[in-house]
Amino acid sequence: MRLLISECERLFSRKLIWLLYLAIPLSAFGALQYHLKRNHEVGITSPEYSSVYTFPVNALHEMLPFFFNLFLLVLIVLSVTEEYRGGELRLILIRQYSKAEVFFAKLGAVWLLLLAGLLLFYLSSQIIGWLALTKVNAIYLFYHQETFSVSEVFFYIIKFYLLTLVTLSVLIFVFFWIAIISPRVTVAMGLGIGYLFLSITFDIIMGIIQTHVNSPNLLVLFLMNFTITRVEFQGIHLMLANPFNFMFFSLVLAVYLLLFGMLSFFYFTKKDYYY
Amino acid sequence: MQDYLLEVSNVTKIMGKRKILNEVSFNVKKGSICGFIGANGAGKTTTIRIITGLVTPTAGTVRIDQHDVHKDRKKALQKLGAIVETPIFFSYMTGRKNLLNLARLHAHLDSHQQKEKVDEVLRIVDLIDRADDKVKTYSLGMKQRLGIAQALLGDPEIIILDEPANGLDPIGMRELRELILRLSREHKITFLISSHLLDELQKICDHLVVIHKGSIAWTGELKDVMASQYHNIEDFLISVTR
């Protein structure tokens, strides 16, 4: 617990972290601008239509692949690459904690800051939605034929935010591995952004391939759904639509968690520290 | 056996195909100030990294107050404070905040005691007036003193300093020397100091360990060096590593 508090304290001592938190309500406001325009283009029966009730989900869906991925990347690079490669980490490692304890404290601190970021985004989008959007009688959601009541949407929002938290928690391990193998902060940021860019490009290419093949190709379908960015773009809504999707995307996330969790853990704890 | 606070036994470190350390063994007595000398690349910093638990030896053991650093890390490192190479801090925090952040990591201090301990070590290293300035505004000498302050947070029995006088001006070096002697005298802290500044070591050390090409070339008391035909560490070092 002391290690975790110490990690959080260091992150919160940085102006950049406060600027990121300041940007969260602004990003919700940015999402509002987009959805106000979009509401004029789509009908009230479209799931894309943002009402008071659906705006927290639609806004997060909009901001997740870009804003929150970068938010997470910056948190991890500051916590891991900067301290690991800059040598500050030895101030911690020469005390009576194991490298494994330091590893989990860093993960825990980043996760707590992410949780706080998501809560702040939810509150911001809820308040902005109440102030700027209209109430509707029938609520439509992605991949659902039926309409939803206000209380049902409230539970949908909770589930959507929880699955977003789970997805971003898995992404923490991918970014942690990138952060720890990178020799400098700039390289870590570049590799992290590069990973996101390649991942999104891969999704697009697989989508194009899928539309050009005559019969449904299971391999293409499997591959195009096997990136974390795809889980963010579509997967979370699909997971909430039916149990098969939930199982499939849970499996995708589990593979990433195991692979990058083990790579990060063994690199951090087994490698000699020469910085 | 009980007189030794630090025991390094047959430590070997192989990196790739290169043997960096070859069965390094030496002991440091409780209460002594031990100089650790050798040419660049002799293996001083690697040895210090192994003693502080940052690097795992290929073979051999390091014990601090009978506790194995690599098997009983918690108990062994409780007794240790260290500056490894240049003193690096969280530059975006003040000196006091750096120390408070690190003091949190010492389980024997509650939050009130952490603040008291930070004030105490700041006074010891004479940094109390600059404690609330950001570390990035500190001179190298001040960072060295802050480095010693962080090493003192856990009430260590032994402090390891790796090139502590590097980059210090004559006044800084004198302040550092006086601080080490005071801590040894008043707080009974044992020191292992690696340095190229042999004249400085000669003024404070009572024991000496000489490392050459990854192996221990000589260990013993400074008075034996001074009683030898060389009368100073520099000539003695050249003779034992030739």
Question: Could you list some keywords that capture this structure?
Answer:
heterodimer; A: about 280 residues; mainly alpha; two-stranded antiparallel sheet; 10 helices; 2 strands; about 80% helix; globular; B: about 240 residues; alpha/beta; six-stranded mixed beta sheet; four-stranded antiparallel beta sheet; 9 helices
Could you characterize what this model shows?
The complex is a heterodimer of chains A (275) and B (242). With 275 residues, chain A is an all-alpha fold. Chain A has one domain (2-270). In chain A, 79% of the residues lie in helices and 1% in strands. In chain A, a hairpin with a 6-residue loop joins strand 1 and strand 2 (147-148). Helix content of chain B is 37%, strand content 26%. Chain B has helices at residues 44-51, 73-78, 95-103, 111-124, 140-152, 170-187, 198-204, 222-227, 233-241; strands spanning 4-15, 18-29, 33-37, 59-64, 67-68, 80-83, 158-162, 190-194, 207-212, 215-221. In chain B, helix 3 crosses helix 4 and helix 4 (111-124) crosses helix 5. The mean pLDDT of chain B is 90. Chain A binds chain B through residues 2-3, 5-6, 9-10, 13-15, 86-88, 90-98, 272-274, and chain B through 49, 52-56, 73-78, 80-82, 84-86, 88-90, 92-93, 97, 101-102, 104-107, 150, 154.
Write the SSE topology:
The complex is a heterodimer of chains A (275) and B (242).
Chain A: H1 2-12, H2 15-41, H3 55-86, H4 89-93, H5 99-132, E1 139-140, E2 147-148, H6 150-181, H7 185-212, H8 218-224, H9 228-239, H10 243-270
Antiparallel strand pairs in A: 1-2
Helix pairs in contact in A: 1-5, 2-3, 2-5, 3-5, 3-6, 3-7, 5-6, 6-7, 6-9, 6-10, 7-8, 9-10
Chain B: E1 4-15, E2 18-29, E3 33-37, H1 44-51, E4 59-64, E5 67-68, H2 73-78, E6 80-83, H3 95-103, H4 111-124, H5 140-152, E7 158-162, H6 170-187, E8 190-194, H7 198-204, E9 207-212, E10 215-221, H8 222-227, H9 233-241
Parallel strand pairs in B: 3-8, 3-9, 6-7, 7-8
Antiparallel strand pairs in B: 1-2, 1-4, 4-5, 9-10
Helix pairs in contact in B: 3-4, 4-5
